[in-house]
Design goal:
mainly beta; Jelly Rolls; 14 strands; six-stranded antiparallel sheet
Length: 217
């Protein structure tokens, strides 16, 4: 059964990425969040604030207050993968409606690092930010604070409902899917590997899943 499921996923990724980019060999899934604690993660918080005042784990869910700004990230670096994050807004308010998934995050840790951000701001999930000097074909010539905007209408679920953010990183291409819909694509990215992170940026959020499936070439 596991082989069949993995094979189906591999065919799906081949369809998304193009058969020339990925083999059809089954791959394994790595659960980045173990449902219990922050094993495998580290933090970077503005003004060196205590991260455990912002981030906590209870009943298999990560809770983030959104204050102060910062992020948790994996201790390991990754390349060529499909990342799935399931998260939701607990509540939002003006100037308190933002988070994001960070991929290809580079050292040194700082607020904010060089990376690619899949925007998690309310009604803008799927915007792609090139942060800290990272660049792509679609973003060249644009201001550093201007994202490559999502395609079409928002696919975000209502506040309080879970959202699925799937980010496929294939060599120098990044594709962002929100709740099953392709929202954005970057190509010729100047960062192609790095740590994976989640932002604390104003919104109170919860995460119940962070998993990674390597892509085989």
């Amino acid at each position: 059964m596991k082989f069949a499921v993995s094979l189906c996923l591999s065919f799906a990724f081949a369809k998304i990425l193009g058969a020339q980019e990925i083999s059809l060999a089954p791959t394994h899934r790595l659960e980045l969040f173990n449902g219990t604690n922050f094993s495998g993660f580290t933090f970077c918080m503005k003004h060196d604030a205590d991260p455990l005042q912002t981030w906590s784990v209870s009943h298999g869910v990560i809770h983030c207050t959104g204050q102060p700004a910062g992020y948790l990230r994996t201790q390991k670096s990754f390349q060529n993968y499909a990342l799935t994050v399931e998260w939701r807004f607990v509540k939002i308010a003006p100037q308190a409606d933002n988070t994001g998934v960070l991929v290809h995050l580079q050292l040194p840790d700082q607020v904010w690092p060089k990376c690619i951000q899949v925007q998690g701001k309310h009604a803008h999930q799927g915007d792609l930010f090139l942060m800290g000097g990272a660049e792509s074909q679609e973003h060249r010539g644009m201001d550093a604070n201007t994202p490559v905007p999502l395609r079409g209408a928002s696919a975000e679920n209502p506040v309080g409902e879970w959202n699925s953010s799937v980010t496929i990183c294939s060599n120098n291409v990044v594709r962002a899917y929100i709740n099953g819909r392709l929202m954005n694509t970057l190509s010729e990215c100047t960062v192609t590997h790095g740590f994976i992170g989640i932002q604390s940026e104003g919104a109170e959020i919860e995460l119940r899943k962070m998993s990674l499936e390597p892509l085989e070439y």
